[in-house]
Amino acid sequence: MFKPIKNRNLLLRLNPPQVLAVGFLFMILVGSGLLSLPAASSSGEVMPYLDALFMAASATCVTGLSVLNPGVDLTTFGQLVLIGLVQVGGLGFMTVATLIALVFRRRISFRERLILQETLSQQSTEGIIRLIRKVIMYALVIETVGALLLFIRFAFEMPLGQAAYFGAFHSVSIFNNAGFDLFGSIEGQASSLIHYVDDPFINLIAMPMILLGGIGFIVIADLLDLPYKRKLSLHSKVVLSMTATLVVVGAVVIFVFEFTNPATLQPLDASGKVFASIFQSITSRSAGMMTLDVAGMRQATQFFMVIMMFIGAAPGSAGGGIKVTTFAILIGAVFAMMRGKQDIVFFRYRIGPDRVYKAITFSLLSFLLIVVAAMILSATENFSFLGILFETTSAYATAGISMGLTSQLTPFGQFMIIMLMFVGRLGPITLAFTLTPKMDNEPFRYPEGKVTIG
């Protein structure tokens, strides 16, 4: 009796989220191997593998948390490896693989289209290849324009070659919401954009790039098609309205809390205070670039930023968090309950119960994961609980903002943060798949019971 021949190709037996997990893990391992080479370290010696693994994971997951000073501790080769991982991680390795396949005119299989569907958080595979072409084109155009504008600004204070390199590196880092910077080579420490806190040119370049990277390629494509279609999709309307609301509310809260803080807003003039408040509001949800010292902020502001990081950016973007659409559904559920309504309605469209269940489930799982991780790290790391909560939320939400704890973590703490970054980058995709099974028609239903609430 013959046994059935099993498919020996492991990748072909994996479902789309598992393929994405394996792909991201492979990129992290390759990146850590490259960063472990003596050519990547400015000291000329092999850096500790855990540090290389941390940096590779942070770059691939477009987080920006760092145990090294990229501008000082990494050579040009190491910096190029880092920003290469950011680019691939931001676009998604399947998007890059599809680009290569299209260049060589290879046919994209249906299974690969399913994986791309998961990568871009799409509802179907229809038009997925056209969207991939748009994603790549939009990313290249935005990053190129950003690099040129940053080059013009940096050229006033550094040699032209260095200005061009800094412009390209920081353009990719900013648009992909990664948060890595090279200013340590000038200032001695990674200072993000703190020295440009009241610079209108840098602010007006960086803020739109962060927003474009955070709203996602689906919304960008929808906006560019608006003159022809004359309408936006419900997804784009929710993302844009929620993003605008969070930016305004965040800027007001930060402005009020930090207005008299001598370590942040107080020394700035009126325009500087406004720029800094808006910038921190935009960047706190995912970008990682800062123009104010987070460690110098008041605790109320730091905790507010934890909430903003937890909310995150939009689905299908380089940002993390529970996503603005998930948060919108949660807020919609609260208002519907308060008004005695059964349905959550956005822009005259009713949100299905399955979407509400997914939003609640994903938010609760994310909250529990962050809380458990923070509790464990509070027992192993010698820092304040707020600082640990800030760091764990930043890692899971791939925000990349730090209060200065990352470089002081124990090896166990570094490993925990690596796992949080990895799960945070894949969590929305994986959970979206696992929470979307086909509903089986049960042969019977249990009688309805009543549980007292509140």
Cα shape = globular
Q: What number of domains?
A: 1
**Biggest β-sheet, characterized?**
2 strands, antiparallel
Number of strands: 2
Question: N-to-C SSE series?
Answer: HHHHHHHHHHHHHHHHEEHHH
Backbone CA Rg: 22 Å
Your description of this structure?
It is a single chain. This protein is 61% helix and 1% strand. It has 454 residues and is mainly alpha-helical. The protein has one domain (12-430). The protein has a two-stranded antiparallel sheet. α2 packs parallel to α19 (411-434). Mean pLDDT is 83; it is low at 1-8.
Short summary:
The chain is an all-alpha fold. It has 19 helices and 2 strands. The chain has one domain.
Question: Descriptors for this entry?
Answer:
19 helices; globular; two-stranded antiparallel ribbon; disordered N terminus; single chain; 454 residues; mainly alpha
Task: Set out the fold topology.
Layout: H1 16-35, H2 49-60, H3 70-73, H4 76-91, H5 93-103, H6 110-119, H7 128-154, H8 160-175, H9 184-187, H10 200-215, H11 217-224, H12 226-229, H13 234-258, H14 270-283, H15 299-311, H16 324-338, E1 344-346, E2 349-351, H17 353-380, H18 385-396, H19 411-434
Helix pairs in contact: 1-2, 1-4, 1-6, 1-19, 2-4, 2-19, 4-5, 5-7, 7-8, 7-10, 7-11, 10-14, 11-13, 13-14, 13-15, 15-18, 16-17, 17-18, 17-19, 18-19
